[in-house]
Write a structure and sequence with these properties.
The protein has about 200 residues and is α/β, with parallel strands linked by helices. The chain is built from 6 helices and 9 strands; from the N terminus they run αββααβαβββαβββα. The relative contact order is 0.20.
Amino acid sequence: MSLSDAELKGLFTKTGALLTGHFLLSSGLHSDQYFQCALVLSDTAAAERLGRELAARVPPEWKGATIVAPALGGVVIGHETARALGARSLFTERKDGCMELRRGFTLSPGERCVVVEDVITTGKSTREVVSVLKGLGAEPVGALSIVLRAADEPDLGVPLKSLARLPAAAWTTLECVLCRDGLPLVKPGSREKPKAA
């Protein structure tokens, strides 16, 4: 049986992975909610279930594709999704601010790939992975995420399927009502806070 949006939100709440406050997202936007997927995915049974749920969303034309996830957030869910599909699992990572496929991972020309993410807001990381795959001659065919937190689906250059759409408010630094109220800004993710210009 498929996981509903409410069940998924309940899983995030139960594991303490749905945070409220004033957060700097990896997209550079500010939000009053943060989905700390690492806390959910640290429960191996939950990680396995979420991987199976994402695998079940894969349409027939994506079957047999290699799973590629951006590090660090997508690595665990990418692996679990690949395991459920019986597919290969790779990940990209940033080096000097640029997304790259490293660690001896290779792709064949025309190899079909699906990008797997934990949370998508603007889709920046997913688009970067899609670009890396195309640059290596692979064929990105789609993207999967546990949570789509944007109200509108971002243009990723490939179709997107998510377990849940849980829109959360997000603002630029200049528009942020939480900054205006003087609430301290927290960067809970794995990426370093961008340096001021």
